[in-house]
Amino acid sequence: MEGSRTLETIVRMEAPPDLEPAPLLDAVLEEASVNAIGPDSIAAVAARARMSEKEIHELYPDHRVLLVEALQRRDELGAAHLAEGPRDGRTLLLAFLETARANTAAPGAVELFATLSAAATSADHPGHEYFRTRYQALRHLLVDALRELEEEGELEHGADPQGIATQAIALLDGLQVQWLLDRGALDMPSLVRSFFNAWLVHPLH
Fold it and tell me: Most exposed among 13, 117, 130, 141, judged by the fewest C-beta atoms under 10 Å?
């Protein structure tokens, strides 16, 4: 097992108890929900945040840092929402499916994540540590969810929680790139659900 944290502990660690307002980061996410985000998006983000472009450049001389912090904000908002509900294994798999569904409504955010995650494989990218830690935390969460289901007799014989978790994350990442290239070609939530259901005694609906 990658770690000994329980599902409840992981969710509690990932979700800040009091999420402070972050108008600029929220403005980036709002813009990303409707448009592709890049260096040329600062004017639109500034208008949403009611700031000047100069103010943003002074705060974030490297626009990549702003974009990475916006993704961190997105994670925090999602974790806070997750912490409000049940934390059993099946519910957490459904939350992973909901991420796939919600992403289809925010193509700009999906493109931002895909572009930054690819660039951040370079160790000197400002998002390198964020993505490394994020993938590690998501693996922990899914592995613990699957191990809980295994203990309940809900996983097929021979299922490997570690392998399933890693493949599920890779599947969603790959599907998102394909979806960005041709949004009518596939149904991301359905395909992710089918992958999990291949290993579950009682399928997700």
Answer: 13
Residue of 128, 137, 196 whose CA lies nearest to 167: 196
Measured from the Cβ of residue 168, the count of other Cβ atoms closer than 10 Å reads 21
Q: Does the pTM exceed 0.85?
A: no
Which tokens is 78 given?
């999602």
CA gap 131, 137 in Å, rounded: 10
Q: Which residues pair with 200 in a beta bridge?
A: 155
Closest by CA to 37, choosing from 97, 133, 106, is: 106
115, two tokens: 């572009």
Q: Rounded CA gap, 60 and 49, in Å?
A: 14
56 — phi, psi (to 5°)? -65, -45
Residue 171: count of CB within 10 angstroms of its CB: 17
pLDDT 10s digits, 128-153: 999 999 999 999 999 999 999 999 99
CB distance 67 to 20 below 8 Å: no
Helix, strand, coil shares of the chain, percent, nearest 5, are 70, 0, 30
Q: Which residues contact 185 (CB under 8 A, 6 or more apart)?
A: 178, 179
